[in-house]
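Page 42, continued from yesterday. The earlier attempt failed because a stray header line got pasted into the input along with the sequence. Redoing it now with the clean sequence only.
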Amino acid sequence: MAKIDELVKDFLAQKKIAVVGVSDKRETGCNLSYKNFKGAGYQVFAVNPRISTFEGDPCFADLKSIPEKPDAVFILASPKVTEQMVQQCVDLGIKHVWMHCMMGTKPGLAASMTSVSPSAVEMCKANGITVIPGSCPNQFLNPDGGHKFMRGMWRLFGFMSVNRGVGGGGPRPPAPPPPKKKITKRPPRGGALPPPPPPPPPKTQKKKKKNRQREKPATSNHFFFFFWLTKKKKKKK
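This time it went through. Structure tokens are written below.
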């Protein structure tokens, strides 16, 4: 995890910034960001397909309608609009994107108040775009008391860290595999290792001896035959 400050510093180092999501109906954080960027000397482009002018400046329907290619894009709109804008950044070769989220870099905690789209973040990573998935420029660029408080609170809660693969323009390269340890056997004191013991002889299967049936002595049969024969002779007499 990397601190968001490094990514913010890189984003604010750009000169031409498109601000997506300005409104002419009410004051929004996007409107404030536009004014802060313009007041700090940036060349700013307002983007909203519904209006043609904003704060006396031309307002463009999308990024491709801007006559000059922006260096960076700040988006405060629905996640679906964020996906469309990121696709245009890929087509135009814009390499810096900031997606707004009220509660730092934890969009899941403010699902109805975030512009972060996980698929758009993945699209940035796959195309070498440095992306800030959350927080707000108003917390860093000439912040008022309220935005200073929010930045400090989210930092305290750990909501101001970014996955290095998300903010670094692409996925983190895999770490090299650890070197294989060579296992060496130390010889005993006073000489080399003794030879290994011989393998045990193969086991032979013992033949099962069949139980031999004991033969009955024939004397008993002879005795009965002799008794029957003498009895028969007596009857004839």
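Notes: Residues 166-173 have pLDDT under 50 and may be disordered.
Reminder to self: strip header lines before submitting.
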